[in-house]
């Protein structure tokens, strides 16, 4: 059955949602599912902007056929060559052999790596500033390198003021019947997923995102059409502000998160005590996470949200507790900046994790590592209460 939604005059969504996929890029858990967005232009000449993932191929090709209703397809525009958006390029080209495939020079390089038959496609190579007219709609191309692949283009439609933004401004989450962000309580239903999507997939490329945001500021944008998640037609400034914060590594909240590792529960008890003390002293919101039981992508999303990060774990094999070390490595890989870290450790005979975590965190830019730390020996006792209060006071005052 067809699944087409009108975006605006002459532009239609013809994508699909996948609720079966367990991990995006086979890394990030997506219990909320994910959408794959493709956009059809019904004009004097027809065009499709990006295809979809193989998991929704049948629905996608059915939607495309319904949208065309017997007309020929003139253009297939490829803004992003990642497989979750390009998997159907060869199928579309086979169904419509006269189609002209449009993309950047690097797009075609990647395309032939995925699809050797692409060497024989009719093609139109475009770069920043070039335009493509379908009649009433004229699309101006904007280069968006490393947001988050090097070949990425945006396309701005002068007629509808719609920005087709590739993977930028996307989010995890299947579309539950609604296409537009304002059809949902976005802050409740999508914002944590959007933040986690950005932080884990695009977070490393803040400088490049800032460059694209500056370009976008010069356009009169009325809609944003991403390749994942809902379309924005209202309150664009609110979401753009989120992207500006995320891409400059600003925190959204002065809240603290407490992330702990614990073998037998003793360090967990200490972490809960720290969280309770922080909440009591600050009156603010505190979230507690078990580093062993929480996928690191959720922790990274919380790092992008919060200013204060409290890390408490035992010494393990004379090193950092392994899941905590993995979390630290992810923060380093994604270029975390502008955060305050407070460190605690547990060790029955030789606690060294505060020093080791300090060494790793010191490699991050513009971070503060509090001098006040917490050390417990095997388990937290009443005799540790004063040290715990001093530790919590330092975090609150930071």
Characteristic terms for this protein:
23 strands, alpha/beta, 398 residues, 23% strand, 7-stranded mixed β-sheet
Give a structural overview.
- Helix 6 (191-202) crosses helix 10, helix 7 (206-217) packs antiparallel against helix 8 and helix 9 packs across helix 13 (385-397).
- The chain is built from 13 helices and 23 strands.
- The longest helix is centred in the C-terminal third of the chain and has 17 residues, at 266-282.
- Helices cover 34% and strands 23% of the residues.
- The radius of gyration is 24 Å and the shape is elongated.
- It has 398 residues and is an alpha/beta fold.
- A 7-stranded mixed beta sheet has the order 1-2-7-8-9-10-11.
- The protein starts with a strand and ends with a helix.
- The protein has helices at 57-68, 83-86, 89-95, 105-114, 186-189, 191-202, 206-217, 236-247, 266-282, 296-305, 322-333, 353-361, 385-397, and strands at residues 5-8, 11-13, 16-18, 23-24, 28-29, 34-36, 39-41, 47-49, 75-77, 100-103, 122-125, 131-133, 138-143, 153-157, 162-164, 223-225, 253-260, 286-290, 306-316, 319-320, 340-346, 368-369, 374-376.
Structural topology:
Elements: E1 5-8, E2 11-13, E3 16-18, E4 23-24, E5 28-29, E6 34-36, E7 39-41, E8 47-49, H1 57-68, E9 75-77, H2 83-86, H3 89-95, E10 100-103, H4 105-114, E11 122-125, E12 131-133, E13 138-143, E14 153-157, E15 162-164, H5 186-189, H6 191-202, H7 206-217, E16 223-225, H8 236-247, E17 253-260, H9 266-282, E18 286-290, H10 296-305, E19 306-316, E20 319-320, H11 322-333, E21 340-346, H12 353-361, E22 368-369, E23 374-376, H13 385-397
